[in-house]
Each structure stands twice: as structure tokens, then as C-alpha cells.
Amino acid sequence: MNHAGETTLDERGLLCPQPIIDLARAMGEIAVGEELVILSDDMAFPLDLRAWCAGTGHELLDLTTEGPVHRARVLKRPRA
What we know:
The protein has 80 residues and is an alpha+beta fold.
């Protein structure tokens, strides 16, 4: 379920680096303070996502794994 100010990006079936590339593009399309939910079944996604958030300053709010699917919520922060 999406909340107000939240967009979902379904990257299941795509392998590294595509989920992160698509995440970066999608973050450019939402406003500061909005959240993006991203779904991925790529094994490398959790590590890639943490590194990407650390490098961009966006905030990883939540990362869960259910079966093969990772679900993350990322908050768009202003550029430093």
C-alpha cells in the first residue's frame, strides 16, 4: 500500500546495476521529503542500496526481505 507522497518502483527481475540506476532516476522525479518504495529480488540490492544512500545523502528508512524480495523505503533529502 502506498501512502501520500510515496511512489513505488518495482525492479523485480532486474539485476545489478539496473535497480540502482532506476532508483536514481526515480529520485530525480520526486520532491524533497517524498518517499520511494523499491522492490527488488537482486541479491546485491541491499548492499548496493546502502552504499547508494550513503553516497547520495538520501535516507534509507526501512529495508525488509520476504522470501526473495527486498522492500526498501527511501526518503529524498535535499542536496548538501
